[in-house]
Give the backbone structure.
Amino acid sequence: MADSSAVFSNALRTMPKQGRAVQTYERLLDVSGDLLAEVGIERISTNLICARAGMTPPALYRYFKDKYAVLDALGRRLLARRGDILTLWLAEVSPRGAQAMAEGLGDVLTATWQATLNEPGGIWILRALRAVPQLAHVRAEAYAEMTEIMAAAFAASLNHPPRDDLWLRVRVALEFAFSADELLFEETRLPPEVIIAEATDLLRRALVEPIRQAATA
């Protein structure tokens, strides 16, 4: 995906560059993610973050102007990490063709789910990206970038099918994958591997097979 600077947003007051400042910034995000999971989107505040992190408000305000800037940065960091997984997967499987891509969809779904599990407050960050109007642009920008990357890889592997059709299918597939991630955390009646297997099958039939057929017609 993009380089590490992509996790920074215009909401940041200062972009940390030195080692200690970057460590402080990352610690603030980790603390904020854990706190978000505990108290939820409405109750989290800069005062609570400062208290949990053992910092004064001026220290936090050096980086973030308000709690929405913190949530913005949390969302960008998580989506950048998920995007990196997708990019590395595409670089590995796309040269091997459409069949390898179809067979590997379950692997990349599992990897992105694990990345969300490992992220402090991961599922709550995903929920915030959907629920908070001030964060709508974060998901939109990240998914537009991921769509372009994935569509380019599929186009090369599938003999360059019509671009508009490919872009639409990839965009819808990414939105579905996002929803499947939430389902993995919310559905208690089915084990994760069953949900991933079903989501993989639906993605394969909706994304890979029709495009491959169109490309070879």
Residues 68 and 193 are 34 Å apart (CA to CA). Residues 67-93 form the longest helix (27 residues). The chain has two domains: 9-68, 75-216.
